[in-house]
Amino acid sequence: MNGTDRCGRREDRTDRDRSAARADGGRPLVAVVACGGTIASEPGDDGAAPEKTGADLVEAVPAVTDHARVTTREVCSQPGFDVRWKDVLATATAARDAVGEGPDDAGGPSESGEAGESAEERADGVVVTHGTDTLADTAFALDLLSDLDAPVVVTGAQRRLDEPSSDVPANLALAVRAAADDRFAPGVHVAFDDELHAARDVVKGHSNALSTMTSPEAGPVATFTRAASRLLRRPERGVSLDPLADAVDDAAAVPEVPVIHSGTGVGAGALERALDAGVGGVVVEGTGLGNVTGALGDAIGEAVGSVPVVVAGRPPAGPTEPVYGTPGGAVTLAEHGVTFAGDLPAAKARVALALGLAADLDRDGIEALFEPA
């Protein structure tokens, strides 16, 4: 879709949905797609676990209705560390359906909503509530799978609603606020701690700090205060390839793609075992600019003929780049035929490769997954 078509479609939807006469003054409609995580968790004798629904969260944070009318949809109730591919694909489908861009171009009914709302009314934006452990992975997967004419904003929390200084209210209200603002389309974004980050760039940078979401080098797309927001760079989808959702509709089609780490003393064993297990592809987390040990480099040279191998770098910022020779240097790996992940960390390179293989992309298509828009 070209830029003119995109702007026209967004303008049409804005004229139809936001400017239409409504008893509530024509406020935008935001669909909250609930996926579990700390944001939905409650304490228990065996540890905390997701229990709250999206409707529970909206009810607990009345400030969300300051920015939009809100409906909710339930996809799953998983902790962030146990999100499955079927959950990711279902989330992408729920987002597309909510804004009327699903395969049948019809939004399904919401689980709950304000009285008097039409179940078929198209949302102006989508919020996904999710566990923080893999929030950045899912946000990037949604960016790969879809290209919607409405903001899609993923959020979560580091502290449950029952904990002191919970960040649930602020993050959920921020996400709805951003999803109601059509400046933040296209692309998928992550709302956390008064900042909005691009799905391609964001990572979880701290295990428990409230400011955990960060975008090394790139920085946030926007920052927010109580009364205003500041756009720091243009919101955009993080990949130039066409959306993969129509080509990936079955979680069983997503192959196993392990991450093999290089480091001091690493040999070929882990890669050889992965290949023996019949994996669909491999991501190697190299050191520095994308280098590996000599033993692992030799094994990669033998592996590239049977499966795609993508090499990422270990540093939290900076791209991969062929500079060094020797058996494990990135120059040698390039000669073997690996694909370099560029500025994507290994975790996101794994998401991209797995979805690309599920979509049956050719070599050029796989390469395009790692090129920013």
UniProtKB/TrEMBL annotation:
Gene Ontology BP, a term: asparagine metabolic process
CDD domains on file: L-asparaginase_II
Residue span(s) of domain Asparaginase/glutaminase C-terminal: 257-370
Region (Disordered): 1-27, 96-122
Coiled coil: none
Keyword Lyase appears in the UniProt entry: no
InterPro entries (alphabetical): AsnASE_II, Asp/glu_Ase-like_sf, Asparaginase/glutaminase-like, Asparaginase/glutaminase_AS2, Asparaginase_C, L-asparaginase_C, L-asparaginase_N, L-asparaginase_N_sf
SUPFAM superfamilies attached to this UniProt entry: Glutaminase/Asparaginase
Domain L-asparaginase N-terminal: 30-99, 119-234
Keywords: Hydrolase
One Pfam family it belongs to: Asparaginase_C
ATP-binding in keyword set: no
Catalytic center residues: 132
Record's compositionally biased regions (Low complexity): 106-116
Superkingdom classification of source: Archaea
Bias (Basic and acidic residues): 1-25
A molecular function (GO) term: asparaginase activity
Family named by the database record: Belongs to the asparaginase 1 family.
Name of protein: Asparaginase/glutaminase
